[in-house]
Specification:
Blueprint: E1 10-14, H1 18-30, E2 34-38, H2 41-47, E3 55-59, H3 67-75, E4 85-90, H4 95-103, E5 107-111, H5 115-142, E6 146-150, E7 155-158, H6 160-169, H7 182-190, E8 201-205, E9 211-221, E10 224-232, H8 234-245, H9 249-259, H10 264-271, H11 275-289, H12 294-306
Parallel strand pairs: 1-2, 1-3, 3-4, 4-5
Antiparallel strand pairs: 6-7, 6-10, 8-9, 9-10
Helix pairs in contact: 2-3, 8-9, 9-11, 9-12, 10-11
Length: about 300
């Protein structure tokens, strides 16, 4: 049996200078990295319609769309947003560093480029991007309604479930928007201060009267907060869980609040039962669902509620 050839890393080099392109192509290919070339910002954007590289090396100064404008445009594309962009700037162009990071770049290298430094930065940022994407895929698979929001309140990432929920709550909002739906902006703003701990919760209502709970899950990166959205419709959700899994009313109630991320202590307070009774219901829930962990039971419940 033939062993498949491992996929090589791919870097897109955006530069209008033939000498720089030749040097960078030779350097990267010598390190077993595949190279794509664009000689302008416009060409880079067109290329991204057909192929998505693992990383982009971006010249800051180019005719037409410069590196900063090109980067901002790339970050607006669904396929371009996760790709790390490293800027290349001259030693005398220190003001470009701030502009590069503000535009969406993750790093920069100075010209004339030191080969070892360039390759080290490229490898680090490609590895970081893959780790981040792996985490996103894992969260997507849980069916959770999760959003990541920057310090300015803008969406930086969200799961498909969150997109679906936000569209349902506010039909005028589209998943192509980078801004939050209007109904979520104020409550999200209340969760942005970096001294707020995980578990901090606020509630809001949609124009249609739906109640939404927002909970801080964590802060995966500096100036970014991960928030879970719970669409609270307990009566409908309890009935759905009870019917789907053959649960008693109380078991369905316990499973519902588990799916909302509530600990046993809080569930016991909501349902006015003892934590020991919550545990007994959990044992029955695990048996009926054929699972062994709280996380697995919650994942099953989320999928049923979402549909």
């Amino acid at each position: 049996m033939t062993t498949p050839t491992p996929r090589s890393d791919t870097v897109l080099v955006v530069d209008d200078t033939p000498e720089s392109l030749r040097f960078l192509t030779d350097t990267l290919e010598a390190a077993n990295i595949s190279v794509l070339i664009a000689t302008s910002g416009e060409a880079a954007l067109e290329l991204l319609d057909h192929v998505v590289p693992d990383l982009i090396l971006m010249d800051a100064v180019m005719p037409g769309l410069d590196g900063f404008e090109t980067t901002r445009a790339i970050k607006q594309l669904p396929q371009g947003a996760p790709v790390p962009i490293i800027f290349m700037t001259g030693l005398t162009e220190s003001e470009h560093v701030v502009h590069a990071l503000e535009a969406g770049g993750v790093d920069y290298v100075r010209k004339p480029i030191v080969v070892e430094e360039l390759l080290a930065r490229v490898r680090v940022h490609m590895a970081n991007a893959r780790q981040t994407q792996g985490g996103h895929y894992a969260l997507d698979a849980t069916g959770r309604n999760l959003i990541a929001v920057g310090a300015d309140g803008a969406l930086s990432w969200r799961t498909p479930g969150a997109d679906k929920l936000m569209e349902a709550l506010e039909p005028a909002w589209s998943r192509t928007d980078t801004a939050l739906p209007a109904m979520l902006r104020a409550p999200v703003g209340r969760l942005l201060p970096d001294d707020l701990p995980s578990g901090t919760t606020v509630k809001t209502e949609s124009p249609g009267g739906d109640t939404v709970e927002l909970i801080i899950v964590g802060r995966p990166r500096r100036d970014e907060v991960l928030i879970r959205l719970n669409h609270l419709d307990p009566l409908a959700d309890i009935a759905r869980l009870q019917s789907h899994f053959g649960l008693t009313q109380r078991e369905a109630e316990v499973l519902l609040w588990i799916s909302y991320g509530k600990p046993n202590r809080v569930i016991s307070e909501i349902l006015v039962i003892s934590p020991r009774t919550v545990n007994k219901h959990l044992e029955q829930i695990f048996e009926k669902l054929g699972v062994e962990t709280r996380a697995a039971a919650a994942a099953f419940a989320v999928r049923v509620i979402a549909h």
